[in-house]
Amino acid sequence: MKIYFSGSISGGREHEAIYQHLVARLQAQGHDVLSAHVADPIALEAEKGLPPREVFVRDVNWVRECEAMIAEVSTPSLGVGYEYGLAVQLGKPVLCVYRSGVRMSKMVTGNPAPNLSVAMYSNLAELDERIDAFLYNLT
């Protein structure tokens, strides 16, 4: 399955290890993670050299192309919020995950869209369970 993974790049990298775990696990399951670069430790540096329009066009095209989106939303990010909103509006199945104890935006938790799932997790095992359940329900 083509999956768009969204996580904060310029908004902060404190959840980078989680991004890496998520992307590696999805790829190991045979999924094509269109935005795997988000988990790369040099993502922030690599994105600096790209013109903003190029990043916008690339990412919007990936959201349009994906079959599902998984967004790690623990770190507030305008880009992640934009991507999540676009995917929901396009009717893509979207899973937003966030760490327990993080204050989450009500624009995420209060969204009644039928193609949106929101799940909290407290460890990697729980995160894996949430993602597996989301993907299972898509098949």
Please give a structural write-up.
The chain is an alpha/beta fold. Helices cover 46% and strands 17% of the residues. The chain contains 6 helices and 5 strands, in the order βαβααβαβαβα. Strands 2-1-3-4-5 form a 5-stranded parallel β-sheet, with helices on both faces. Helix 5 (106-109) links the parallel strand 4 (94-99) and strand 5 (116-121). The longest helix has 15 residues, at 124-138. The protein starts with a strand and ends with a helix. The model has no long low-confidence stretch (mean pLDDT 91).
Protein topology:
Elements: E1 2-6, H1 16-28, E2 32-33, H2 43-48, H3 52-65, E3 68-72, H4 78-89, E4 94-99, H5 106-109, E5 116-121, H6 124-138
Parallel strand pairs: 1-2, 1-3, 3-4, 4-5
What is the gist of this entry?
By secondary structure, this protein is an alpha/beta fold. It is 46% helix and 17% strand.
Got a strand count?
Answer: 5
Low-pLDDT sequence parts: none
Spatial strand arrangement across the major sheet: 2-1-3-4-5
Helix and strand run = EHEHHEHEHEH
Helix content: 40-55%
**Alpha-beta classification:** alpha/beta
Q: What composes the largest sheet?
A: 5 strands, parallel
Mean pLDDT: 91
Shape: globular
Share in β-strands: 15-25%
Assembly of the depicted chains: single chain
Q: What is the straight-line distance between the termini?
A: 10 Å
Rg, Å, rounded? 14 Å
Keywords:
139 residues, alpha/beta, 5-stranded parallel beta sheet, 6 helices, 5 strands, 46% helix, globular
